[in-house]
Specification:
This protein has 143 residues and is an alpha+beta fold. Helix content is 31%, strand content 35%. The protein contains four helices and five strands; from the N terminus they run H-H-E-H-E-E-E-E-H.
Length: 143
């Protein structure tokens, strides 16, 4: 039997997705943001080279690294599509590369890191993430 998803549910998870990206774009405490929006049994489906962390520790470490390198980072969402319990977000993280990132010293340059994420929602929390981002665009030095 096919599960019926209410239209208001889809707008709810799209609004929650906007909130997550919006809060990650501010100076709020990353641990609090992740603990608020990510399920305790969160699963990261994207392979992230060099990270030994699991579960909710992955977004905590990633966003700390990104904020350390790009303190004025903000997410610019260009497209949100909801289907069932998932939201696809397409956009870019933008800001000024002011700190070290993955061994690369600060350049002082404006950067734009395009991304495509799929967030799976359950009971108002992100239970899974699949994504791709073009972090290499930082190393190419262009925004």
């Amino acid at each position: 039997m096919k599960k019926t998803v209410r239209k208001d549910h889809m707008s709810d998870i799209k609004a929650l997705t906007q909130s997550v990206y919006g809060e990650m774009s501010q100076d709020g405490d990353i641990d609090t943001i992740v603990d608020t929006y990510f399920a305790e049994d969160f699963v990261e489906h994207e392979e992230i080279p060099g990270l030994a962390e699991t579960g909710r520790d992955i977004p905590k470490v990633m966003f700390r690294m990104m904020r350390g390198a790009i303190p004025d980072m903000r997410a610019e969402i260009e497209l949100l599509i909801a289907e069932g319990d998932k939201v696809m977000a397409y956009g870019a993280f933008v800001g000024t590369h002011s700190g070290e990132f993955m061994g690369m010293p600060a350049s002082g340059q404006a950067v734009r890191i395009p991304f495509a994420d799929i967030l799976q929602w359950r009971d108002g929390k992100i239970s899974g993430h699949w994504g791709v981002s073009d972090v290499s665009s930082m190393f190419a030095g262009g925004a």
